[in-house]
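Design job #97: recover the sequence.
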């Protein structure tokens, strides 16, 4: 547990209390009692990444049918709007739920996606996975030329 776990509701809405807790977490490069643009940007990016990963974790729990902590292609059900889409619709042409996309997201090639890989699967444009970036580029070119 950390200090934030013990904050009461009143302190959560008290700006001064929040700043006292957050300031040391943001002032890290260097710790000099000042927050510069670099530190604030870094902290905001970290918080955004943490939130996306949290949402991906919740989404993964829906698809991990056998509860082994991984999602296989057979476990992944595309969203309902994809299932009901026709060939002419934008959603169907975007191949992000296809097996090729799944395999490109599988960085270690073990046939299942861990949380990081599943997050990359859901958010390929934000991934550092080279294989997935290549797939995304191919998909973009395919869409532009079709």
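Job complete. Output follows.
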């Amino acid at each position: 547990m950390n200090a934030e776990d013990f904050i009461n509701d009143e302190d959560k809405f008290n700006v001064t209390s929040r700043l006292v807790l957050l300031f040391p977490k943001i002032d890290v490069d260097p710790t000099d009692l000042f927050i510069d643009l670099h530190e604030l940007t870094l902290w905001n990016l970290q918080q955004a990444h943490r939130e996306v990963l949290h949402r991906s974790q919740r989404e993964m729990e829906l698809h991990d049918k056998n509860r082994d902590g991984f999602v296989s292609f057979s476990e992944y059900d595309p969203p309902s709007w994809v299932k009901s889409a026709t060939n002419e619709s934008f959603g169907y042409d975007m191949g992000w739920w296809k097996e090729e996309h799944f395999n490109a997201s599988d960085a270690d090639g073990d046939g299942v996606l861990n949380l990081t890989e599943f997050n990359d699967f859901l958010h390929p444009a934000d991934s550092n996975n080279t294989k997935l970036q290549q797939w995304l580029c191919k998909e973009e070119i395919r869409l532009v030329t079709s």
